[in-house]
Structure formats: structure tokens, C-alpha cells
Amino acid sequence: MSRILGFSFLACCGLFSISAYAATPCDFKGLSVGDKVSPQEIMRHYGIENFTIEDEQSKRTPQTDAEFKALTDRANEVNIINAQEEREWAKGPVCGSDYCRIPSGVEVGNEPYPIPVQLFIGFDRHDIVTEIDITFDHDSWDDIILILNNKYGDSWKKETSELPTYDFQNKSSGSVTQIVLTHRNPGRNPKTGDACEIFANAYDTWFVHSMEPNYRANVVIKLISRNF
Known about the structure:
Helix content: 25-40%
Distance between the termini: 27 Å
Strand content: 25-35%
Structural class: alpha+beta
Largest sheet: 10 strands, mixed
């Protein structure tokens, strides 16, 4: 509040594109919204061996006065949003009561230039995955779009607008051209029958991140609720 989606993206273009157009998937590297998995299974699925389980209090509050002072001092420099993000990334891979966050260690695409991504996986109290958020360097946007088209099919509703931006660290403002792609075909989890929506943002937020990559894009795969 980065980049060749490697799950099925790595399949051969010809064979895979047939299945992609026939039934739009809802997964990232084989983990799909609608799947029932524990936090430990999520981390193991993405090859993360060491991670922290954090409770709600430690998630929100620095543990010592020194940590709190460091956070507030940094917030004065780069804003509390960036300072909190830096604190979260410093923890490394972590899971809470309804999410797992993987700031590094996952890549998509082929050698010799795989693209590193950051992951946020949300789940409900029944351990059902409700959202997969894949964030990557904005510079890889064009590469990711090629992969998205291969996996999901080139059928997007495209919206563009001017997005005002602000750099808290340098105290400067600017603007970028925001592109929002929403896939026209709802995806489907073949194991559970759950539907999903898929969208991509050329810029993930209106502010410049204090940590590299400073400008980021994201792809979101979100469960369409059946609880109506």
C-alpha cells in the first residue's frame, strides 16, 4: 500500500498457449487462489526454507525503544510507509495469521536473465488462498506482459491515466503514465472450481519506494468470492 511469471509461463509457447486460451488459470508457479494450504506449505512450495512466523503485535510494533526510535527517525526521512516497508523487508520471508510475504528468493523467466519478484500471498482463516500479489521492477513491465499473454491469452481491458507521484526522500513530485490491465476472461482453479480475476498495474503505488526497485509494477490474482 518482478517479472516472467515462471509457473506455467515456462511451458513451451505453442503447447501452452492452447491450454491458456482454453481455460485461463489462477496460479503462480503452481499455487492457485482457491487452494487450501498452510503457511508452511506455501513457503515450501516456493523453495523458502527459513522464514519467521509473526503474530499481530510483532507485525505492527517494534520490539524495543531503540527499534521504535529508528523507525520514527527513518519515517521523518522517507515517510512512515517507506520506513515500515524497509522494516518488513529486513525481516526476510515471514508469515502471519492471514498472509505470507517473500521479499526475495523467487524468480521468473528463463536464464540467463531471470526476473526477481516479491510475493504477497493472502489466505483466510481456513487456509484458502485468496490473493497472490507478484511485484517486480517496473523496467521489466514489457517482458512480463509478453509472459502474461502467453499464460492467459492477450485479452485485456486496458486503461491509461496520468498518475501523480511523490518522492518522499527527495521531496519532489512528478507523474507517470499508469497502465491498468484487467483480463476479460475470469480464471478458473481446475481443482476447486473457484474463479479468479487477474489484473496488472504498470505502477504499484503513487509514491516512489525508498528501496530498490524504486518504481514497481505488479500482477494480482484474486479469488472471486462465492459468499454472497
